[in-house]
Amino acid sequence: MNADVAVAAVGARTLRVLRSFGRAALFFADLVLHIPGALRRFGLVVRQIHAIGNLSLLIIMASGLAVGFVLALQMYYALVTYGATESLGLIVNLSLVRELGPVVTALLFAGRAGTSLTAEIGLMKAGEQLSAMEMMAVDPRSRVLAPRFIGGVISMPLLALLFSAVGILGAYVVGVLLIGLDSGNFWSLMQSRVDVWRDVGNGVAKSFAFGIVCTAVALYQGYETEATPEGVAYATTRTVVVSSLSVLAIDFMLTALMFSTP
Amino acid sequence: MSKKGIETMVGLFVLLGLAGALFLSLKAANLASFGERKGYTVSAKFDNIGGLKARAPVRSAGVTIGRVKRISLDPKTYQGVVTMEIDEGVRFPKDSSAKILTSGLLGDQYIGLEPGADDKELAGGDVIHQTQSAVVLENLIGQMIFNKAAEAGDSTEKKHEPAK
Q: Is the separation of the CB atoms in B121 and B144 below 8 Å?
């Protein structure tokens, strides 16, 4: 192979990657610009909150409960060696509110709601419904994409809050009701050491960011999909991979920013 | 599902989420004890503040009456300056003393205020002069090991003497 061909291949690849970044950024800007238009038809947003939020409720709360159970059990085994079991609730609370709540909710959200968004939009595109809307002078971005985006961004923090709350209740069930720790200690240590703005507030801010990322990725993958069955399948897979990885990366950055000072 | 039904379901979902937020902030965090934070600030200088942190409680007779607001170093005397905010309703005599104490053996450090006998009361911006620094566990352990070693040295000397 000639050297110039190899160099050209590298250049083409770089340009392709850059172009996809640019397309995603333009798509995101376009999405944000269409938010006011979608808010005027709030009925569409409500329908999407139902499809994205309400229907994810069961899996989120079940997972939250399970995570709370398991965390409490594992922490108890670890803490009992140091005689520090009274801080069980505090540890479970902080790890749920700061990290696990937002992150696990976002990962589940990508699997439960993100995939359905991508598949829905991808099939709309494959069935030329989006083009048909454009033909009727209806902008699919403000009619189809923006309501879903708002719905996802509203649903995610609520789901993450519920995940943490149910997880703490699960830890209460295991720690206080099953193991028999003192329930007064369980709550009062939390109340003295967990700060509403610093811990709970930052957790909500995180899940808000994850909501934006997960929903935007899902919509972008659906909108850019190849209009074939394989294309939709591939786009759905990519939604899960891309949103999960970006959630983990963003979580690391946000944690470093928010909790860098003790 | 009808439009009305969907709206009800979404309303329930949002209310449930808000209930979760309320639970997290009231039952599982410190919002309830956050509201009545209105007080006056006093400061105290310590030779060693140990592991005291901002937002640590200020207690008198075990009752939390305020929080540590700020910790800094006095550049002239090289002492730690602890600024604390004490609840408005609680007034202390001017010659009260402040100690840095530890809750439990290895627990968190807090400031213990002990009232003096002066007629005048501490006001905002005042300085508490009588202070006692934190007990640093390493120093204590070091001292104990030193004492034990000295004792052991004495006893071996005594044992050797009759053998002579």
A: no
Residue B75 makes CB contacts below 8 A (sequence gap 6+) with: none
Any idea what DSSP says for residue A185? H
Return the bridge partners of B67, or none: B57, B85
Residue B36: its pLDDT value, please?
A: 52
Residue A52 structure tokens: 């994205």
CA distances from A213 to A104, A138, A240, B36, B102 (A): 14, 26, 12, 38, 45
Across the beta sheet with B80-87, the strand order is B127-128, B39-46, B80-87, B63-73, B57-60, B109-114, B97-102, B130-132
- Pairing mode of beta strands B80-87, B97-102: unpaired
Does A50 lie at the interface with B, CB-CB under 8 angstroms? yes
Helix boundaries (H) for A127-182:
129-135, 140, 146-172
Q: Which residues of B touch A157 (CB under 8 A)?
A: 17
What is the reported pTM?
0.76
A157 touches chain B (CB under 8 A): yes
Q: What is the ipTM of this complex?
A: 0.83
Is the pLDDT reported for residue B164 higher than 60?
no
Phi-psi region of B107 (alpha: psi -120 to 50; beta: other; left: phi over 0): beta
Q: Are the C-beta atoms of A187 and A140 separated by less than 8 Å?
A: no
pLDDT per residue as tens digits for the range B127-163: 888 888 887 778 888 888 988 888 888 777 666 655 5
- Name which of A192, A198, A204, A208 to mutate to probe chain B: the one with the most chain B Cβ atoms within 10 A of its Cβ: A192
Rounded to whole angstroms, the Cα distance separating B89 from B40 reads 10
**Residue A260, both tokens:** 């860098």
* Count of beta carbons in the 10 Å neighbourhood of residue B26: 13
**Which is nearest to A47 in space by CA: A189, A181, A144?**
A144
The per-residue pLDDT for range B1-60, each reduced to its tens digit, is 677 888 899 999 999 999 999 998 888 777 655 445 678 889 899 888 887 877 788 888
Token pair recorded at residue A97 = 């509110």
